Amino acid sequence: MKTNIQLSPRTAPARHLLSIADLTPEDLHGMVETSASLAHSGCPVAGPLTGRVVGIYFRKSSTRTRTSFTVGAMQLGASVITYGPNDLQLTTGETLADTGRVLANYLDVLVVRTNEPVEEMRELAGQGRLSIINAMSAEEHPTQVIADFSALVESLGPLSGVHLLFIGEGNNTAASLALAVAKTPGMRLTLVAPEGYGLPDGLIAEARRLAASCGAAVTQHHDMRALPRRVDAVYTTRWLTMGVPKSGEWLDRFRPYTVTPEVMARVSKRSGTIFLHDLPAMRGYEVVDEVLDGPQSIALRQAYHKMTGAMAVLGWCAGVSVAPGALASAARAPDRRQSAG
Question: Euclidean distance between the first and final Cα of the chain, in Å?
Answer without folding.
Answer: 81
